[in-house]
Write a structure and sequence with these properties.
This protein is an alpha/beta fold. About 40% of the residues lie in helices and about 20% in strands. The protein has helices at about 15-25, 40-50, 70-75, and strands spanning about 5-10, 30-35, 55-60.
Length: about 80
């Protein structure tokens, strides 16, 4: 029996760190969705929660230009 892939949301404004996380998690069977702008995943999370398809894990940067990681988690 095959188990479902865990879904990970990565919110990071540094493209090198996004690549590093993707290179680490993807070969291990995780499905990553990466964003650098926090407003985009907030809209996506609203749509996903309506269909009951949440992420299994959220990795967020603490310091970002438009919204910090804590504000993102609070709005999420």
């Amino acid at each position: 029996m095959k188990t479902a892939q865990a879904r990970i949301l990565v919110l990071e404004d540094d493209s090198d760190l996004r690549d590093l996380l993707s290179n680490y998690y993807t070969p291990r069977g995780y499905a990553l969705t990466c964003y650098e702008d926090p407003t985009v995943p907030l809209r996506e999370l609203e749509a996903l929660s309506a269909r009951e398809l949440p992420y299994d894990l959220v990795l967020t940067d603490l310091k970002m230009p438009n919204m910090d990681g804590i504000a993102f988690i609070e709005r999420m």
